[in-house]
Design brief:
Beta-lactamase domain protein; seven-stranded mixed β-sheet; RibonucZ/Hydroxyglut_hydro; six-stranded mixed β-sheet; 39% helix; single chain; NDM-1-like; ST1585_MBL-fold; 15 strands; Metallo-beta-lactamase, Chain A; 308 residues
Length: 308
């Protein structure tokens, strides 16, 4: 299948084809003794993920674990569907996200407020998962991949209060979710993901510092793909956060409303990203992954909390 890439170490990247796009959201299958799916993608892409797992030889009774870095719908919207396809799989999530997977009604209501009619085409509907199948992680936890190999979780809020990073003891791969921002492999661009309501600059920088301290061999971005230049990339993640926060803080201190703040930040950061000078499709893809309106709104929300 053309949406599966072998990354070595029995790890397979699956393009979930979110909303019909390529290269937007990745799921990852760790195909050890106890196969583990990291990130499900959206509800609408769950059949795509199932087909990929089938082609890799993982049948309905074979998947041992499904783990999500956090419960935003592009990462975990497919959990309920995937849980239905794989009745033996344990569903693993940080404790601050667990109740929303069991009862997604509040999460879906707030997502509909943000996305409106676009919700159905972009994400679809997160279906509930039986609470008895959900394992809630604390600040750290371990997922058994079989043969002494573990996937170790580390609480890394800042992007979202239910976010974890996951490091594979066998490969040194670190699944960064959205805590290190979004990466566009076509252009090498990296920019932050700072949506409301949870963004907090210091906590986000601390999470990146934690990732550096874990000493990973490779970063696996949910958006999108593997990066081997770990130190340089995490350094850029922190720098990008500071740039966006400094510009938004300036807009905030000048009393700009959201629309004017977004326009100013977009204009001042334009030159940083080759994707925005590329073809329209690449620019659109980048904006969908890490939209300036969402990023600036999240930073303003935080600024209003810390310096109203």
């Amino acid at each position: 299948m053309d949406n599966i890439t072998a990354l070595g170490g029995d790890v397979y990247e699956i393009d979930t084809r979110m909303a019909g796009y390529s290269g937007i959201t990745a799921g990852y299958l760790i195909l050890g003794d106890r196969p583990c799916l990291v990130e499900t993608g959206t509800s609408t892409s769950a059949p795509v993920v199932r087909d990929a797992l089938t082609s890799l030889g993982v049948g309905p009774g074979d998947l041992a674990t499904v783990v999500v870095t956090h419960i935003h719908l592009d990462h975990a919207g497919g959990v309920g569907d995937i849980a239905g396809f794989y009745p033996e799989a344990e569903i693993v999530v940080h404790e601050k996200g667990a109740r929303h997977l069991a009862d997604p009604s509040r999460l879906m209501a707030s997502a509909r407020m943000v996305w409106g009619d676009k919700l159905d085409t972009l994400f679809g509907e997160l279906s509930p998962t039986e609470a008895s199948r959900i394992r809630a992680l604390g600040d750290t936890g371990a997922i058994d991949l079989g043969n002494g190999r573990t996937l170790n979780s580390h609480y890394s809020p800042g992007h979202a209060k239910h976010h974890v990073g996951l490091i594979d003891s066998g490969t040194g791969d670190l699944y960064v979710g959205d805590a290190a921002g979004v990466y566009l492999p076509q252009t090498g661009d990296l920019r932050p993901a700072t949506p409301p309501p949870d963004f907090d600059l210091q906590i986000a920088l601390d999470s990146i510092g934690l990732f550096q301290a874990l000493g990973p061999q490779r970063l696996l971005f949910s958006h999108y793909g593997p990066v081997t230049d770990v130190d340089e990339t995490l350094g850029r993640s922190a720098e990008e956060l500071r740039v966006w926060v400094d510009l938004t803080r300036q807009a905030h201190s000048e009393g700009m409303d959201l629309d004017h703040a977004v326009a100013m930040v977009k204009e001042r950061t334009q030159e940083r990203y080759a994707a925005l000078r590329a073809d329209d499709a690449t620019a659109e893809q980048f904006e969908l992954l890490s939209g300036a309106p969402s990023n600036v709104a999240g930073i303003l929300h935080w600024l209003n909390r810390v310096q109203p």
